[in-house]
Input
Amino acid sequence: MNKTFALLIRSLRTESRDIKIHLFRAGLASLIVLILYFGHELQRQVTAPGMILFKWMTVANWIFITVSGVTLFAVSISEETEHETLGLLRMANIGPLSLLLGKWLPRMLMAFVLVSVQFPFTLLTVTLGGVSWDQIWATYLMLLAHLVLVGNVGLLASVLKPTSVQACTLALAILLIGRILPFLVLAILYLGAFKGMWGQSVADWYYANVALPINSCTSSGRLFGEILSTSFRGSPWTNQVASNLALGAGLFCISWLIFDRVTMRHIGGSATASRSLISRIMTRKSRVSSTVWDWALGWKDFRQVARGLKFMYLKFGLYALFFAVVVYISRISGENFQDSVRNGAMTLMVVIWFFLLPLEMCLLGGRLFRLEIKDQTWSTLLTLPLSLRELVQSKLGGAVLGLIPTITVLGLSLLPNASEIARELTRDSEGMLMGIAYFFSGVILAAYLSTYFSIVWNWAVPMISAASGIAMAFFGNLVAWIVIMIMLMGASGGDKYLGIMLLLMMITGNLVVAFITHFAIGQQLIAKGAES
Amino acid sequence: MSSPVIEVNQVTHLFKDHRALNGISFQVDAGTLHGFVGPNGAGKTTTLKLICTLLRPQTGQIRVFGLDVRSDVKSIRQKLGYMPDHFSMYKQMTVYEYLDFFAAAYGHVAKRRDVIVGDVLALTDMEGRKDDLIQGLSRGMQQRVSLARVLVNDPDLLLLDEPASGLDPRARIELMEILRELRRMGKTIFISSHILSELAELCDSVTIIDRGVTKYSGPMDDLLYAQGDRPVFRLRVEVDTEQWGARLPSLQGVEAVEPVEGKPEFRLTVSSPDIDANSMLTQLLAMGVPIAGFQRDQRKLNDAFMDLTERGVRT
Output
């Protein structure tokens, strides 16, 4: 027990000096302050703003807990492996249970305290109206169970993987698969029933007896489908609470049981030397050297950041497969071939435009300098006889080549629906173009922020930088819109160009922040070059 | 007297409230191998980064090939090669790709690059490993590839930060051989290192800094005399240690003879700096001493270093 306390105290001390923990706290605190401000403003306009305030606070906490599971908990053991201190701790006769508890408890305490200190503000929502005590108890118990579950998912990933990057990725993958898999199976079952491979009763049974109960056991399913509805009167003790706590405890036990076997392998080799099976299969000791282009930096970043030609072919293949699946589903739903192709193209266009292109741009931003800084190659590149601008432009050029499949497919997907799109554009050309420009300004801002975070956060993997960039751009825009809406509330009438003017303001705002981030990135790159 | 390649004049550099350099000054002549020595935290890496333009000097002046590091960044970068104190490599590349990449980044066309890369691979004895992935190479091999990378641009000045750190004895000896070869090719080499014995053997001149201040800068040989010392030679005899111990003080110019404990060796301190190794060796042979080994005593560089630098942790 003393050993667990020793680790607990050490972790609390270390984390009190850790910038990322403070960033988390500051982020959540700012969000809560903002929500309270909006609640205050809403009080003037809405009769019972408590429910709106409560919803925002709950969603903010739910996101915070989920993100902390994928990041803070997922690095708890792997950071010791990376710093090569895990072996020393084991030599000090600290057992797996003490180690796990010593690393898990401080994080759990931190998250628990952060969520708990908001409790008085939650009581405010009851005063403001629209929220019942049942809802508050149910929400806090749901959040606690969710915290235990994601904390243990992160802990397990941290035991299984020797580097923080791998552990964060695994934790994210487990949470995503756990959420998506039941519905993927459901989709396959309905598709099979439609094709006559089995009766629809099989899919219905699965939906009623497996998919729905699983959904009600997930915090997100319960949060958005149940607790936040105005008519909620249920008990706080539900399947979700019981299942999340039980699963969390189970995962903790698995981490404990496999700890020695897995971590000994990590301690034996260095953290970076321990690689995944795929990586071991793919990695050879030697290969035929390829010829470097005269545009050297472009060549390097096309391979390093955009992952090269093979990945490009893979993306083309995946887009083709996605298109084929949508066309096939349309066909078996009774559409003719031409309409199926148009459906496929339209779906592809929407998915790429609203999801894949922004995500890919942010990921490229997150990888562009992160890999150089992590591998300490940035200072060497800075000694080349090139200005910083030339260097960055060359690198960016190579990385952007990785967008060729996405942009090409986006262009191709416009063709079957070209006349429809043109008709929409001519119907409200100013509004449409402004909307497109606004969306793209947001994407540019998100890409810039992702790049910035990837440089300043030493611990952030590209996925986290990209997610943070997207989240910050999204919430920034959301906050700006809410402020504008509050300011406009009660205003009478309105100019027909008011909407366009507002969009123009938002585009300008996004680009100004992106412009400022651009210079901040430049400063950070110079500083990082001198540091390494 | 050859012209200075590096001129550092009254340079001070602060990181927030920490004074890394406090008015250091020294210069490095063309075609020399110049050692740069100092305790941990003395400001060696900061000085190297200032010279290679990764940092901008806050006060004072640094000139490389007569060019100002503040205003002539590109021209200076074209003429120097910097090897940092850590492995800065793209480990997924092969050795050939890595060198070819840097040669292309320096603007060489494909045909010329093939020749350049072949030459640097030959110089660093890495021809047989050119298609090996860098991540699979040993530390010593990676260090050679790093050195080869520095050479692809055929720079006139090489800045090497702790190049021998972490290398096994064989790799270290091989690295020193390559550096000697580079000096023979006329390169100016500025090398920061903690391995004083090797520096003493290798370098023509040396700068010692401590707590951001220059303690000594000049020819390696002069360092010993700058401390008021006289040359000391180390002699190893084959037989009859006691007999020779009694006779050696009679040699002309020998001021003191000190037996080395547990070894058939003597430390001979001479009375005048004019007595060099040749004249001493001539006398020893004339006396009929059965010489098993004879060398200038290198221990003095360690002593000079200890004398010039302060003990204790920097506050």
About this structure: The mean pLDDT of chain A is 81. Chain A has two domains: 2-277, 296-531.
